Amino acid sequence: MNDLHHEESQQGNATRRRFLKLAIGILASLNALILGIPFVSSLIGSARKRKTEWSRVTDIGSLPEGQPVEVKFQALTEDAYHHENTLYSVWLIRHAGNAVTAFSPNCPHLGCHFIWNPKIEKFACPCHASMFALDGKVLYGPAPRPLDTLPYKIENGVLFVRYERFRVGTSGKISL
Ligand code: FES
Q1: CB of 102 within 8 A of CB of 113?
Q2: Which residue has better confidence, 14 or 140?
């Protein structure tokens, strides 16, 4: 009887040890997972975050006053792993006194490229018919915000733009 009791107690101890080992293993794995999340997300974040430097676009004197012109330019884009030269475009309007408006070419609704329609003197998006005034205000259609402006600077008569992308479909202008 005593032997039977002793054997049962030993089996119980072995089961408890197995359970404890399993529980410790699960906790250690969870711990490693939780500690690893910020590292992995920082890697993903830095890989996604793309930075574009100031890019030379055109001589300011080549822009007609008050008329939107689309200009293509190369920009160096960098992320955590590589650098590449990409062709972008920007809509430029030169105002009196060499002030400039630089619009991203992407419609803030879903990102299509819009055009300038000189007959009606409005920017028009071919995808869902949004229309914008010369100053970028929404006149018609589903676009949730005005056209997105890009930062620009002029040095020695040369216009530079820093290309950025913005989230589409939001009422606020949010950099990506
Ligand atoms: Fe321009 Fe929809 S993408 S109106």
Answers
A1: no
A2: 140
